[in-house]
Amino acid sequence: MTIQLYNTLTRKKEEFVPVTEGEVKMYVCGPTVYNYIHIGNARPVIVFDTVRRYLEYRGYNVKFVSNFTDVDDKIIKAANELGEEVPELTERFIQAYFEDVGALGCKKADMHPRVTDHIQDVIDFISLLVEKEYAYESDGDVYFRTRKFDGYGKLSHQSIDELKVGARIQASERKQDALDFVLWKAAKEGEISWSSPWGEGRPGWHIECSVMARQLLGDTIDIHAGGQDLTFPHHENEIAQSEALTGKTFARYWMHNGYINIDNEKMSKSLGNFVLVHDIIQQIDPQVLRFFMLSVHYSSPVNFSQDLVESAANGLDRIRTAYQNVEHRLAVSADNGDQHDIWLHKIQQQQTAFEEAMDDDFNTANGIAVIFELARLANVYLLEKNTEKVVLEAFLNTFNQLMSVLGLPFKEKEELQDEAIDRLIEERLEARKNRDFARADAIRDELKEQGILLEDTAQGVRWKRS
RNA sequence: GGCGGCAUAGCCAAGCGGUAAGGCACGGGUCUGCAACACCCUUACCACCGGUUCGAUUCCGGUUGCCGCCUCCA
To answer: How is the cofactor bound (predicted)?
Structure first.
């Protein structure tokens, strides 16, 4: 069985075959760090973290690189407004980024390169393009000669002549052709800058990804990913720069995630409806946010609203509860017997179903459906009087494996550390034995106030936090 | 103008040639001292109109309605 994935380049689902067997080189375009990230920025991070996790689950050795754009117009503007130096500002938001996506369960990439650490590489890269006459200097700027690159438009499936009539293309006196894009920008007075053969300046936006991907992963990478909007022009330009230089395929598979809407409206600065991860995770369990995003296929748009997140929270709760209930049974009453084969088989079937879902273009929505089925099976199993240790353990193990792929690990089993609560639970047990239900219910209510929910089962009292 | 996406139950969302997974919410039942957890049951003319096919939610064409991209927005 192989993984199929939708490749923006070919507009088809293709079998995934990495250049080197067993190894995946993956590059995901990261944020421009001039503010806290919003949930729209978080989607690709979550989605491609999950892709990476699944590839690893599948046994691939994944080299995962995600960059920071730490110098550009917006950053310079923000730094000016805040009266802060650029490096200071970017460092601050890079740390905030790690905190935010860490909370969302995203692993760190193997490398998080920053443009400003690769200035010389950028200059070398551009110099080679100039040598090959794919680029030219003009008044301190350096531009890419778009028309000279044959495949331009192959990713976004735009014909170069249609682009010409596009609404927003702006001619510039410095450009030879309106379609050319900037590789190196001459510095304006007082701007942060580096010396180059073309004078003081800084890298253009697109060049950094080409440079760092090549530097860290080589001429040809397996998967290049990012938000849908990056398809054009960003990724199109990356292809042009890289392939013009190396003459080799830059990236074999291109993956793009869909957008997030807020209450059915596009999230945008001008509407003022963007939601910062930093803020929202104060109110919403970050795992719920992640679960919510993964309940939709990554390429579809997803709508964000209070109601939708709440219903996702309820769903995740159901899975967590099932898990805890199995844990409880294992701790309290696990038998040995010989009735386990059929159940072990059912559990195995779910794992296979999960893999089939994920093999199909990382269909996390279907993967989650399988986990719900696993939860249902676990609950049904717990209805049995005699439950076997091997089966209970198999449930836990499978839950753990599948949820780890989604980056949604279960919390460690908690021991009640509070003696007062312990005593109340004991007292309630006694009260129930004496059929003093008024007292028993009073205790249950009291604990509920404290966020401890009690559940009576045939195997004793079970508790969980609300 | 060009390129593309989407329209499936009250809501969310899979499926993409053999008359519809899953979740949330609602209702009914079972379990429980009562609850909770849970289990079972119930709930869909798959936007509209044509066509292809033995058969279409799934393919093709058209219509309507949303949405994205077309040089620096994830």
So the answer is: Binds 1 zinc ion per subunit.
